[in-house]
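dumping this here before i forget
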Amino acid sequence: MSKSELTRDELAAALAVRQELGREYEPEVLDGLADRIERVIEGRVVARLSEHHARQSAGMKVALGSIVASLPLTAIAGDHAGFAGMALAWCGLAAINLAYAIGSRWQRPS
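structure:
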């Protein structure tokens, strides 16, 4: 079990301690439980932000790669096939970026 999980046993133990120690220790028991819940939530938020950052970073690499590839592709396609070749090269680059965008949406956790 990872630190980012809170089990039913832990919750049951906190309730048992609360009942055993009585009302005078209730604030300490509840504060401890609240701290644990906070750490679990914080761990989940950090994990999701890390995943989001990784997806953005990968998307930026695809976009920059497309820009870098577009210059020689446009020049070569324009030289050999004219405007139709350039349009085909740009459609190919657009298709790559579109495929990446659609694929990354399918991989997102729900």
